[in-house]
């Protein structure tokens, strides 16, 4: 089979192999600037938007994809070479692959190369929405103080060099300042990250920054910018070299960075857009008055479930999430965690059958075609755990209810942070707090609860005797008996 590079010029050559955009990309205007063009955005929002562009009358809603960090150079170069085009490969439950080329990213920018271009784009009249996938850690939130981390050196750097920012807060502030000076309409800033109340969080963190950097802008933002909350969902593992090669071999598409994902997708959005919005509801998104309960459900069950499987699985020596959930003992442990510790913290959710939802999660985790990497799941756990697991622990403690499973997983994380699995193989730990985690993990070998001193993660949990006791017991047991034996004991004690 002939192979061609994926770009505008070659696009129609692929039409017999895969689905390609049926709309004229040249006519699509940029109505959305999206920051963070990793796999998740490209499997989710960019796909919904591509679906919408196939319907009449939506040409104002193309996406300008922004790569914010120096680290993002590679994805930027790839998408630039490919005119923003990429292949989305859905790995269906029966193992077949549904492939299509997505065309909704009609522009791409690399912030470190040209910050003012990004600021200008965000400040342009045609742009009505700025969306974000900047990861849980990108919001500069300090768990210990529950406030914006004003001491972060990057934040101080942005305050000193407002025209050459490096953080999202520096960019947004300059862009909003220009919009105000130019007398432009308001704009929506929409987080698509896995954070409880992600819109509220964005608003709170941005306003904290603006109060320091550009205080006279605060009032304008309060009156002209909206921050809808949203719940986003689609499991999107990291693309492997195999995925790239499969695409070239079977479809003749030379795409340097396709995206692979599961069939399931969900997007629940609070309808709070000051400057208009795409009719994403016409392509499967749900608009709701209050999405906070949905976010909570997803973060506490799906994302936390991932962390449970990831941390326990990494220690035992598994590589992918499906392998772990097919271990019956671990699956039972996860089910008990969901049933006995999480469910009662969620309240009632209109129109959602939680039993069905939990069952569907076990099935999604078990999808053998997805092979979601444990390394991906465990990466940046120090930013994920406070959002995915600790709210459940805190609520349960307040209600004097069970925290056994959560304490066990956190103790396992302390052991994991030593850097080796139970077979003695090195773990590939990627975490902004890696050094601190490692130091505390070593200290924990003498006294396990020293691990809980990482305040930016655990807040003041170390002061709760019930939790500390459960954590210390779990830690000792894991060291003595290994994860799986402990899991069996816990399952039997239920
Ligand atoms: C995962 C998420 O990063 C993680 O730990 O739980 O990326 C998860 O796959 C997505 O949120 C699914 O919607």
From TrEMBL:
Signal peptide region: none
Record keyword Aminoacyl-tRNA synthetase present: no
Domain of life according to the entry: Bacteria
Residue intervals of the Mannitol dehydrogenase C-terminal domain: 290-478
Family the entry assigns: Belongs to the mannitol dehydrogenase family. UxuB subfamily.
Name this polypeptide is given: Mannitol dehydrogenase
Presence of keyword Cell membrane: no
Keywords in alphabetical order: NAD, Oxidoreductase
């Amino acid at each position: 089979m002939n192979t061609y590079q994926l770009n505008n010029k070659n696009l129609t050559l692929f039409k017999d192999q895969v689905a390609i955009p049926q709309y004229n990309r040249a006519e699509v205007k940029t109505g959305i600037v999206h920051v963070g063009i990793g796999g998740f955005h490209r499997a989710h929002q960019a796909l919904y938007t591509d679906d919408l562009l196939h319907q009449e009358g939506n040409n104002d809603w193309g996406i300008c994809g922004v790569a914010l960090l120096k680290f993002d150079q590679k994805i930027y170069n790839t998408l630039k070479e490919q005119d923003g085009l990429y292949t989305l490969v859905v790995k269906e439950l029966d193992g077949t692959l549904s492939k299509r080329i997505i065309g909704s990213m009609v522009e791409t920018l690399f912030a470190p190369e040209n910050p003012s271009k990004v600021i200008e784009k965000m400040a342009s009249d045609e742009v009505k929405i700025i969306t974000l996938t900047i990861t849980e850690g990108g919001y500069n939130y300090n768990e210990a103080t529950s406030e914006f981390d004003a001491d972060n050196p990057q934040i101080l750097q942005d305050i000193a060099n407002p025209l050459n920012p490096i953080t999202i807060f520096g960019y947004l502030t300059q862009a909003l300042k220009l919009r105000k000076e130019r007398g432009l309409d308001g704009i929506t800033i929409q987080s698509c990250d896995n954070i409880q109340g992600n819109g509220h969080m964005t608003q709170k963190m941005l306003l904290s920054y603006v109060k320091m950097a550009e205080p006279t802008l605060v009032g304008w933002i309060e009156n002209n910018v909206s921050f809808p909350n949203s719940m986003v969902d689609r499991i999107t593992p990291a693309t492997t070299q195999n995925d790239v090669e499969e695409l070239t071999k079977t479809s003749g598409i030379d795409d340097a960075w396709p995206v692979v994902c599961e069939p399931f997708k969900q997007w629940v959005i609070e309808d709070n857009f000051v400057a208009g919005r795409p009719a994403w509801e016409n392509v499967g998104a749900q608009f709701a008055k209050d999405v906070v309960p949905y976010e909570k459900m997803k973060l506490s069950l799906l994302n936390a479930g991932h962390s449970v499987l990831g941390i326990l699985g990494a220690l035992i020596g598994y590589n992918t999430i499906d392998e772990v959930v097919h271990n019956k003992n671990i699956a039972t442990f996860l089910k008990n965690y969901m049933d006995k510790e999480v469910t009662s913290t969620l309240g009632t959710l209109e129109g959602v059958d939680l039993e069905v939802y939990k069952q569907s999660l076990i099935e999604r985790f078990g999808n053998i075609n997805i092979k979601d990497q444990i390394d991906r799941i465990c990466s940046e756990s120090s930013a994920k755990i406070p959002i995915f697991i600790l709210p459940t622990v805190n609520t349960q403690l307040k209600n004097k209810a069970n925290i056994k499973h959560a304490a066990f997983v956190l103790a396992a994380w302390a052991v994991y942070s030593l850097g080796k699995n139970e077979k003695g193989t090195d773990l590939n730990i990627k975490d902004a707090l890696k050094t601190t985690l490692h130091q505390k993990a070593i200290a924990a070998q003498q006294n396990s609860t020293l691990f809980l001193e990482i305040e930016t993660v655990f807040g003041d949990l170390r002061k709760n005797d019930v939790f500390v006791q459960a954590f210390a017991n779990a830690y000792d047991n894991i060291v003595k008996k290994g994860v799986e034996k402990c899991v069996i004991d816990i399952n039997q004690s239920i």
